[in-house]
Amino acid sequence: MKKLILSLILLLAQQFSNAAERDSLINPFAKFIYDCDACGCSASGGGMGFSSMINQNFVGLRYFYQSYSSRDGIFVNSPWIDENFNTLQIWGRIPISKKLQLTVLVPYHFHNRELSDGEQKINGLGDITVLAMYTAFRTNHNDSVAYRHTLQIGGGFKSPTGKYSMSSNEGSVNPSFQVGTGSWDYLLATEYVINHKNWGLNTMLNYVFKTENKKEYQFGNQFNYASTLFYVIEREKYTFVPQIGAAGEVYESNYQHGQKLPETAGNILFGKIGLEAGYEKFSAGMNVMLPINQNLTGGNVEANYRWSVNFNYSL
Fold first, then answer.
1. Do residues 49 and 296 touch, judged by C-beta distance below 8 A?
2. Contact in structure between 99 and 90 (CB atoms under 8 Å)
3. What gap in Å lies between CA 10 and CA 3, rounded to an integer?
4. Side-chain half-sphere of 106: how many Cα atoms within 13 Å?
5. If both were cysteines, with which of 191, 228, 252, 282 could 245 make a disulfide (CB 3.0 to 4.6 Å apart)?
6. Cα(181)–Cα(219) distance, rounded to whole angstroms?
7. Which tens digit of pLDDT belongs to each residue from 197-214?
8. Which residues pair with residue 249 across a beta bridge?
9. pLDDT tens, 220-238?
């Protein structure tokens, strides 16, 4: 296990050190090169996860930061600009019944980027996500078994409570520099957890069906997946859960006025490492994600890294 963790950390460090290397190809699609919904307006939790490894039911605050670079132009010598996506999120997983839980995500975004003519900033309430998860199967805790299983399935929606500005889709910079998509989107999700003694593996899959907004723009459907290996350490009233894993996102092509836009699909795979610590009903956690492999909008947008912190109260 130590060799596995060390190998992943070294791989992530190598990827991070190479983040400054840029693709020098010219993209002929001047207006449509940065339309991947990978950054600001999609940062509702799909790729960051919906749950805590300590608290099955909780309410709390989560902050996550995403660093991106995008090409400000279509030529080989077009400059690269830094884009910083910040999200403060009220999140919770609330029990409705013994087998039904309701996850709610309420984000507030404050983003900035450095353009050639100065800094641009936007902020505001993002798109609120509501997701219902039903426990389809759970091993009886009274059974003397070596492995315990929990399977949840569910669905929900993302409402267009965040502002979408059409002006951000004009020109050659990233139109995901938004606080909302302007569309009603719908989610299907599943989560599977297997435990053996103090070890556990959490696997999450979710798919987002995105619809056209009032500006006749539609971001592509999005598939998110993640698998996290964790180990539970209990010391009297304290609980520590170190964790390591991988997470990925796959984006389909976008549409405008019913027409498919070229160079708008993409995918990215992250390695992640984190730690959660709990005391009685309170817990805190942090998580770092670094890209292992990516292809966003033909290489014209690059993810550098993500990190997050959260503070929860167990229900």
1. no
2. no
3. 11
4. 6
5. 228
6. 8
7. 999 999 999 999 999 999
8. 224, 268
9. 999 999 999 999 999 989 9
